ATP synthase subunit a, chloroplastic
Amino acid sequence: MNLLLCSINTLKGFYDIAGVEVGQHFYWKIAGFQVHAQVLITSWVVIAILLGSSIVAIRNPQTIPTDGQNFFEYVLEFIRDVSKTQIGEEYGPWVPFIGTMFLFIFVSNWSGALLPWKIIQLPRGELAAPTNDINTTVALALLTSVAYFYAGLSKKGFGYFGKYIQPTPILLPINILEDFTKPLSLSFRLFGNILADELVVVVLVSLVPLVVPIPVMFLGLFTSGIQALIFATLAAAYIGESMEGHH
C-alpha cells in the first residue's frame, strides 16, 4: 500500500509540475485544453527547420558527398556513435529516437539564442526556445521514460519486471522509485540549465554594457549543445540499461 501511495504521489508530482508557470503565457484553447501558444509556435518553427534540413539532405544524395551532405552524414554518424556507445550492438532501432531528442533540443536551444523572437509581439508573454518551458522538458522526459519501459518489455517481456527484486526483494521500493524519478531528473536538469543560462545573460545585460555579456552569450551556445548531448546520452543510457536488465 505504501508503495502504491508513493507511485501515486510521484505521478501527481508530474501533474503539478505541468502547472508550473514562469512569467506570463499566451494561451490557446484546443479541444477544451488550455495550451501555451508561444511554445507551440516556436516548436513548429523548430520542427520546420528540422524537416527542411532533412529534405535538403536527402533531395539529391551523391556517391561522393558534397559539403552539405558531408555535414549531415557527420551528424548522423555522431548520433549513431552516441547510441551505440550507450545501448550496445542493438542500437539500430533506437537511432531515430535518440537523434530526434538530440536534434530537437539542440535546435530549440540555439533558436532561443540566435533567432530574434523578441521582435514578434504577443498579447501576453513572449516567444522563446521551446525548452524554456518546463512543460516541454517534462514531455521529453516522459517520452524517454516510455521508451525506457518499451525497450525493456520488448526485449524481456514481463520478465523485465524481475529486475525490481534484484539483487534482493528488499530493494523493490527503491528500484521502482528510481524508475519514476528518472524522467523528473531529466526534466529538471534540462529546464534548470536553460533557465539559469538565460538568467545569467539577463542579469549581466542589466548590470554592465552589452559588450561584456556577448562572450557569455557565445558560451551559452556551447552549453546549449552540451545540454542536448547530455539529455540524448542519458536517454540512450537508460534504454540500454533496461535492455541489459541490470543497474
Notes: Residues 172-207 form the longest helix (36 residues). The longest strand covers residues 27-30. The chain has seven helices and two strands. Residues 100 and 135 are 18 Å apart (CA to CA).
